[in-house]
């Protein structure tokens, strides 16, 4: 049913198997398939206690007092802690230290941690929570992001000083960041009216993106073990060990080297593990109780315990000339950041710079805002601000194509960016960007058979609604939609998110063996496989062991922003190169090597340019291992100008194009996605099978955002914190996919590769929305699209 | 309460079990079998799927006491009902097809996939079609893969089982 074209050859030496460009089995696969792989929620020690968290029932309230005496008196309870028991810094955060370890003064969202308990059984811990008495003075929630942003009379979520200010961003009031971008006439102060007057066609639209949850399956969890030196060892599922360590240690009042982290098995991440959740709590309890403490969130708590994708309210206006050339674009993007800063400023930076998409538009005015409210905190999720904008600008492109009577792909091709173009921040795209070709490939891919060509068109499994359908498909209409999205890859705006790798080559049991050690978080994406492949390719040795990630080696940066193959891959490559240099020097020194000969490593030996084995590595390295550690930095970027948004803020750009084919029951409001086609340029496919898996997973998450996934928040309260009510796509909701991978190398990147985890999440959603529009003729300005939007019923009034 | 049942062919006993504990909790926390995963405890995700007297169930929805005197088979028992180490054919197909990313869904999916292959190909009833595979796995969520590789893996495992059955019959 599905079809995948991925490159087969790499152009690299092939004497060593399972190197870069091959698709070897993942080294952790067998353990995961037998149930032996130890996830963070599987951690266990003989004498461990269970931690639990008391959370605020109110989205906004003054905290008047916490009485823990009755909880402490319960047999089996070993510790009950409040903010008064936090020995060091009382607040932490990724960009600004504004999130309390345990609430004090005020609670700012429903679910904010107020007290923690350690007990000998999880049920005892839960019962202890029930016995903690908290006095609140309830305040009015600040739930409307537009009011929070623009109404000067709106109450403040953060009183003066509760968010430290380092002056990096334009902020104030309830704004975490306002980032404008001005180009062309707008940079000269032109008004929208002036540009509108010059356009032949103008389209405007208001768009809304609901709050999406990462919904990884492995809940937030970990085990903290108190150590004899007064420190603590934490086994945890995270995306970035060192940034956790850097936030935890100050809160515990400990030096960083007293807080040692090791990565426990991670059950998916998608951005939700970039912020801390239970880390400080488990350490505090373990240090107080002097026993190992395990905390595992249940699903409801997981919805409360991590940041979500920012919901967005967006206003767009595009003007074009009659021949379809874009003249100007104006966008206002308001992102609800919820109660604490998390990564909101960086998300705003992406939404602003990617705000009108990969199009050549001479005059642009974008304003992106991140807003504090008393809604659940929002932060990183795969696509990071670019997802929301992509739904806005791609909806606009479709509206414009319709007005011009143009095919949506033709309009996009006519205005496409390419290598050498500039994005709206003024940054020149210096790597290949085959956007026009990608769009045409998506359009020209074979179409799935129509309903009439099915063996049994009345088979309910082929109908929207599936086997629970009550009709025979009389109202089913097919639609096709297209979208393209562009995303910056690696960290931006001056952030030096380097990665560190230690590589050791030695003789073990008569053969050469490589050990790779980094702190990079394997979250499911297959980074452990890729590290081994790179070592094999660079050192010509097949036996590679990737050590568990921990803080005994330098930072690897975050497993986010599609950056780990680029950055940690780059670090492993650099460390291998350093090892290789020393080994070759050793060979020249000791071995029977003709002077001046060009040497390389292959098949476990030092070989000559003609491929002759000069000396086996096992022999050369007998008793003298070679080890090197290297840091890898991407090219420098800088903060954009706070007023006009200009500056080379990004490292690399990634792009994906989607074509969606859907069947819509226009009477019942049900959608079945028939097929998704994705075309993505990845520069170089390091592991084609895992790469395709990334694009498929990203596509599925985009389908979810288009049709079903929304954390429903009313007056600051999440109404659906469960997998019963928050729906992620099942195998029946997810269509067969056709993945088309292009490889146009980026000369600045290791092996020419381009980060690939995120781009597919951008275009998937607007492509599905476009296809549903094509089938229904409705405007559909909001995702997820609900059945009532399709059949045209007014939305049910929200319960208050 | 004391609960005694059979897991992966071995008799087991758990003492001091609270009335509210699920079969999943007892397997994971009392019997040292954490292979079955806990991702929702509401019967929605299928990560905890095990065989109970040969029928697949969500172990989080079975009270521990309900398992008393019955036979349970978990992901740990898929490859080695007799104690061997080798991966079973369905497990191998998942790895080859790239159906394992974070792997949190994998134990439950493997049990559910094993059930489908056992009802079809292994009984000589042929390789299930795409729609049948999807219906059978509809209770198992995966957030990482987009399911393409999983469907592929189940097809691969069923094809191999089918070939083995037909080869054996010849
Ligand atoms: S944990 Fe049992 S179905 Fe999710
Ligand atoms: S592989 Fe991660 S949930 Fe399926």
TrEMBL record, chain A:
Q: Name one Pfam family in it.
A: MoCoBD_1
Compositionally biased region (Polar residues): 1-13
Signal sequence, start to end: none
Question: Which residues does the annotated region (Disordered) include?
Answer: 1-27
Q: Which SMART domains match?
A: Ald_Xan_dh_C
Q: Which GO terms describe its molecular function?
A: iron ion binding; oxidoreductase activity
Protein name per the record: Xanthine dehydrogenase molybdenum binding subunit apoprotein
Source organism of this protein record: Actinorugispora endophytica
UniProtKB/TrEMBL annotation, chain B:
List the source organism.
Actinorugispora endophytica
Matching entries from PROSITE patterns are given as: 2FE2S_FER_1 (PS00197), 2FE2S_FER_2 (PS51085)
UniProt domain 2Fe-2S ferredoxin-type: residue ranges: 1-78
Extract the InterPro entries matched here: 2Fe-2S-bd, 2Fe-2S-bd_dom_sf, 2Fe-2S_ferredoxin-like_sf, 2Fe-2S_ferredoxin-type, 2Fe2S_fd_BS, Beta-grasp_dom_sf, Diverse_Oxidoreductases
Query: What's the domain of life for this entry?
Result: Bacteria
Instruction: State the Pfam families in the record.
Output: Fer2, Fer2_2
Q: What is this protein called?
A: Carbon-monoxide dehydrogenase small subunit
Please list the GO terms describing molecular function.
2 iron, 2 sulfur cluster binding; metal ion binding; oxidoreductase activity
Which CDD domains does UniProt cross-reference here? fer2
The keyword Transferase is annotated on this UniProt entry: no
Question: What parts of the sequence cross the membrane?
Answer: none
Q: Which UniProt keywords apply?
A: 2Fe-2S, Iron, Iron-sulfur, Metal-binding, Oxidoreductase
Entry keyword Lyase: no
């Amino acid at each position: 049913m599905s079809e995948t074209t991925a490159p087969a050859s790499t152009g690299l030496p092939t004497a060593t198997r399972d190197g870069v460009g091959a698709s070897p089995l993942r080294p952790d696969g067998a353990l995961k398939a037998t149930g032996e792989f130890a996830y963070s929620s599987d951690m266990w020690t003989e004498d461990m206690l269970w931690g639990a968290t008391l959370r605020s029932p109110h989205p906004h309230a003054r905290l008047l007092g916490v009485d823990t005496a009755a909880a402490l008196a319960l047999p089996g309870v070993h510790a009950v802690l409040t903010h008064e028991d936090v020995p060091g810094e009382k607040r932490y955060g990724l960009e600004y230290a504004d999130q309390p370890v345990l609430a004090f003064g005020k609670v700012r969202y429903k679910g904010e941690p107020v007290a923690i308990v350690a007990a000998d059984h999880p049920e005892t811990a839960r019962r202890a929570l029930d016995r903690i008495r908290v006095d609140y003075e309830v305040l009015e929630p600040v739930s409307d992001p537009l009011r929070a942003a623009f109404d000067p009379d709106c109450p403040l979520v953060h009183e003066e000083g509760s968010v430290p200010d380092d002056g990096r961003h334009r902020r104030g009031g309830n704004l975490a960041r306002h980032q404008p971008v001005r180009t062309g006439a707008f940079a000269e102060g032109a008004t929208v009216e002036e540009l509108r007057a010059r356009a032949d066609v103008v389209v405007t639209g208001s768009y809304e993106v609901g709050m999406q949850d990462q919904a990884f399956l492995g809940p937030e969890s970990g085990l903290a073990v108190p150590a004899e030196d007064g420190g603590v060892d934490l086994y945890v599922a995270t995306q970035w060990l060192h940034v956790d360590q850097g936030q935890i240690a100050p809160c515990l009042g400990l030096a960083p080297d007293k807080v040692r982290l090791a990565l426990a098995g991670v059950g998916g991440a998608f951005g939700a593990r970039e912020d801390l959740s239970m880390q400080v709590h488990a350490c505090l309890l373990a240090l107080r109780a002097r026993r190992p403490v395990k905390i595992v969130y249940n699903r409801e708590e997981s919805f409360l315990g991590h940041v979500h994708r920012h919901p967005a309210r967006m206003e767009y206006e595009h003007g074009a000339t009659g021949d379809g050339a874009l003249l100007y674009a104006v966008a206002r993007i308001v992102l609800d950041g919820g109660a604490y800063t998390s990564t909101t400023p960086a998300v705003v930076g992406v939404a602003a710079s990617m705000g009108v998409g990969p199009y050549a538009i001479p005059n642009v005015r974008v304003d992106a805002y991140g807003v504090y409210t008393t809604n659940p905190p929002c932060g990183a999720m795969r696509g990071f601000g670019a997802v929301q904008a992509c739904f806005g600008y791609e909806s606009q492109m479709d509206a414009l194509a319709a007005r011009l009577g143009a095919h949506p792909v033709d309009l996009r091709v006519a205005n496409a960016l390419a290598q050498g173009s500039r994005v709206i921040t003024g940054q020149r795209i210096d790597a290949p960007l085959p956007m026009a070709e990608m769009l045409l490939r998506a359009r020209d891919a074979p179409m799935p058979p129509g309903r009439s060509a099915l063996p049994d068109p009345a088979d309910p499994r082929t109908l929207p609604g599936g086997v629970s359908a009550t009709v025979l498909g009389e109202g089913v209409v097919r639609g096709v939609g297209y979208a393209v999205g562009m995303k910056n890859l690696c960290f931006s705006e001056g952030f030096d998110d380097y990665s560190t790798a230690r590589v050791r080559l030695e003789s073990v049991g008569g053969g050469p063996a490589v050990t790779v050690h980094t702190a990079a978080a394997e979250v499911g994406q297959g980074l452990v496989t890729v590290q081994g492949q790179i070592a094999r390719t660079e050192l010509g040795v097949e036996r590679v062991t990737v050590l568990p990630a921990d803080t005994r080696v330098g930072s690897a940066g975050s497993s986010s922003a599609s950056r780990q193959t680029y950055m940690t891959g780059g670090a492993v490559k650099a460390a291998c190169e350093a090892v290789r240099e020393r080994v070759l020097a050793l060979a020249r020194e000791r071995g029977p090597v003709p002077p001046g000969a060009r040497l390389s490593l292959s098949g476990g030996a030092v070989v000559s340019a003609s491929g002759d084995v000069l000396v086996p590595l096992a022999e050369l390295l007998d008793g003298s291992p070679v080890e090197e550690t290297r840091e890898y930095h991407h090219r420098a970027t800088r903060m954009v100008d706070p007023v006009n948004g200009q500056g080379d803020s990004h490292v690399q750009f990634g792009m994906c194009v989607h074509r969606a084919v859907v069947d819509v029951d226009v009477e019942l409001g049900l959608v079945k996605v028939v097929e998704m086609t994705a075309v993505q340029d990845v520069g170089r496919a390091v592991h084609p099978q895992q790469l395709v898996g990334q694009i498929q997973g990203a596509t599925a998450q985009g389908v979810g955002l288009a049709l079903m996934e929304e954390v429903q928040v009313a007056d600051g309260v999440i109404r659906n914190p469960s997998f019963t009510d928050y729906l992620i796509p099942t195998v029946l909701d997810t269509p067969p996919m056709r993945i088309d991978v292009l490889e146009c190398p980026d000369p600045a990147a290791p092996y020419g590769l381009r980060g690939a985890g995120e781009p597919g999440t951008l275009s998937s959603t607007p492509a599905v929305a476009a296809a549903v529009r094509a089938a229904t003729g409705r405007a559909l300005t909001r995702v997820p699209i609900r059945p009532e939007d399709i059949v045209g019923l007014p939305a049910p009034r929200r319960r208050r | 309460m004391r609960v005694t049942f059979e897991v992966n062919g071995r008799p087991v006993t758990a003492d001091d079990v609270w009335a509210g504990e699920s079969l999943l909790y007892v397997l994971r926390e009392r019997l040292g079998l954490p292979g079955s995963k806990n991702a929702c405890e509401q019967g929605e995700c299928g990560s905890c799927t095990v065989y109970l007297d040969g029928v697949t169930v969500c172990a989080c929805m079975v009270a521990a006491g309900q398992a008393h005197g019955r036979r349970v088979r978990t992901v740990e028992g898929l490859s080695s009902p007799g104690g061997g180490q080798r991966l079973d054919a369905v497990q191998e197909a998942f790895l080859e097809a790239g159906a394992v990313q974070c792997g949190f869904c994998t134990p439950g999916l493997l049990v559910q996939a094993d059930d489908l292959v056992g009802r079809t190909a292994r009984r000589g009833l042929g390789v299930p079609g795409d729609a049948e595979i999807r219906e059978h796995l509809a209770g198992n969520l995966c957030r990482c893969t987009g399911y393409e590789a999983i469907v592929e893996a189940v097809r691969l495992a069923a094809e191999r089982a089918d070939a083995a059955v037909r080869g054996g019959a010849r």
